[in-house]
């Protein structure tokens, strides 16, 4: 019986799909998740500025890095949303304002997609009481 590593198979398919090498994938991952300056990431991976520039100019590397960043942002969204709600519950006024701003934008988008404009009067009244007319 052959044992396969599904994670590495999936990673290989993704690398082929984007046309990037493992080295490029490692640099992209470090850029998205590492929190270090690009110059440091490149040095750690043995990539000089000329090679990196050629990756960027070809476009495939940038597409891969962008898709990777987007995927991680989507994966992190529930944790960020939970943090926002916890901060709002604790009385953080910036979090409360952001929550209502997001709520209003979602309501407006939903209303516009259905061909009507709707604003919850109770939420608007609370918002005006807390933040004024803006």
Structure summarized in a few sentences:
This protein is an all-alpha fold and 134 residues long. The protein is built from 7 helices and no strands.
How does this structure look, described?
By secondary structure, the chain is mainly alpha-helical. The protein is 78% helix and 0% strand. The chain has helices at residues 6-18, 22-33, 38-44, 49-58, 60-89, 93-113, 121-131. Helix 2 runs parallel beside helix 5 and helix 5 packs across helix 6 (93-113). The model is unreliable at 1-7 (pLDDT under 50).
Low-confidence stretches: 1-7
Strand content: under 5%
- The number of strands is 0
End-to-end gap: 66 Å
SSE run:
HHHHHHH
| Biggest pleated-sheet summary | none
Average predicted local confidence, pLDDT: 84
The gross shape turns out to be: elongated
The helical percent reads over 70%
Number of helical stretches of at least 4 residues:
7
Essential attributes:
single chain; 134 residues; mainly alpha; 7 helices; 78% helix; disordered N terminus
């Amino acid at each position: 019986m052959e044992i396969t590593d599904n994670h590495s198979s999936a990673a290989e398919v993704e690398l082929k799909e984007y046309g990037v090498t493992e080295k490029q994938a490692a640099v992209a991952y470090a850029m998205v998740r590492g929190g270090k300056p690009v110059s440091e990431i490149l040095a750690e991976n043995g990539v000089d500025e000329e090679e990196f520039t050629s990756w960027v100019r070809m476009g495939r590397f940038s597409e891969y890095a962008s898709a990777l960043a987007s995927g991680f942002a989507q994966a992190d969204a529930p944790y960020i949303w939970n943090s926002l709600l916890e901060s709002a519950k604790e009385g953080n006024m910036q979090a409360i304002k952001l929550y209502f701003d997001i709520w209003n934008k979602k309501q407006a988008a939903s209303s516009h997609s259905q061909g009507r404009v709707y604003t919850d009067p109770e939420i608007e009244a609370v918002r005006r009481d807390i933040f004024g007319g803006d």
